[in-house]
Design goal:
- By secondary structure, the protein is α/β, with parallel strands linked by helices.
- It is built from 6 helices and 5 strands; from the N terminus they run αβαβαααβββα.
- The chain has a 5-stranded mixed beta sheet with strand order 2-1-3-4-5, with helices on both faces.
- α2 links the parallel β1 and β2.
- The longest helix is centred in the C-terminal third of the chain and has 20 residues.
- It is globular.
- The mean pLDDT is 97.
Length: 166
């Protein structure tokens, strides 16, 4: 069993035992987090919804991200992923959410935000957490590392821990 499937299975067990549901808001992973979660049989008991919001317009329309953020801080930012996570939580009715936005490459990087830059945010209804990651490798490697990071953080969040630490 690969690492992502193992993490998704552990997440399912943790959510099921606590009677929690999760939603995802994804940009650079294109639904990869939701796909990993739904690999697990019975995931309908703990997976509520997945939002794939690749464009800024969809981040605003589907998740309520303020359009002004894109001009001021850009789509790959703490502010945007935190707004995405809040929007996924509010719109889905789940108790936990994760959001990701990043530059998977091979193009699109800048000096401030090189290829491999990913922002991840987790939300539990009362608290929001976010983390900037710098992943190495090609597009697929960046996307896979983002999925792993998101799932590990969700596991910690489901346990009542800070998802950024650990």
């Amino acid at each position: 069993m690969d690492c992502i499937t193992r993490l998704a299975g552990q997440l399912g067990e943790a959510l099921l035992s606590r009677q929690l549901q999760v939603s995802t808001a994804e940009s650079c992973t294109g639904g990869g987090i939701a796909e990993a979660i739904t690999r697990i049989a019975g995931s309908s008991q703990w997976f509520e919804a997945g939002y794939i919001t690749y464009s800024n317009r969809q981040k605003s329309q589907q998740l309520g991200v303020p359009e002004t953020l894109f001009d001021t801080v850009g789509a790959v930012s703490r502010e945007v992923v935190e707004a995405m996570a809040r929007g996924a939580l509010q719109r889905s009715g789940a108790q936990l959410a994760v959001a990701v936005s990043g530059i998977a490459g091979p193009d699109g990087g800048t000096l401030d935000k090189p290829v491999g830059t990913v922002w991840v945010a987790w939300q539990d209804g009362e608290h929001g957490f976010s983390s900037r990651q710098q992943f190495a490798g090609d597009r697929q490697a960046v996307r896979e590392q983002t999925v792993v990071c998101a799932l590990r953080g969700l596991l910690r969040l489901a346990a009542g821990e800070n998802p950024v630490e650990g």
